[in-house]
Design brief:
The protein is mostly helical. About 55% of the residues lie in helices and about 5% in strands. The chain starts with a helix and ends with a helix.
Length: about 120
């Protein structure tokens, strides 16, 4: 499968890149934790604990305790890909997080990011 490489990457390697992307634009690690928790159902503490393990990026999403039902409202393009049309469900979950972090980096208000 073409996506195996990203699925098998260490969560502890990928997540700091998302944080760095947001921080470069003046957002905070706590905001990235908030949108990730909203999307997946993990607590911020559980996300930080996952960073200390060998959990893969794919398993982080596969094992998400309570994916937010409102995540289907996440639409738009990230890295040239329209997130709502991604056919592979696991990759779509990853793209949702990419899109949320993009929205953070672009300065969108948190209440809009969380589809309030």
């Amino acid at each position: 499968m073409a996506n195996d490489k990203i699925y098998n990457m260490a969560f502890a390697k990928v997540f700091p890149l998302l944080i760095a992307k947001a921080e470069k634009k003046g957002r905070t690690q706590d905001e990235v934790l908030t949108v990730t928790a909203w999307l997946t159902g993990y607590t911020p503490d559980a996300i930080e604990a996952a960073l200390q393990t060998d959990l893969t990026y794919g398993d982080f999403f596969r094992e998400a305790p309570q994916p937010n039902p409102s995540r289907a409202k996440i639409t738009g393009v990230v890295c040239g890909v329209r997130v709502e049309t991604v056919e592979e469900p696991l990759m779509r979950e990853m793209r949702y997080l990419d899109k949320l972090v993009d929205e953070l980096a672009k300065g969108k208000p948190m209440e809009k990011i969380l589809r309030g």
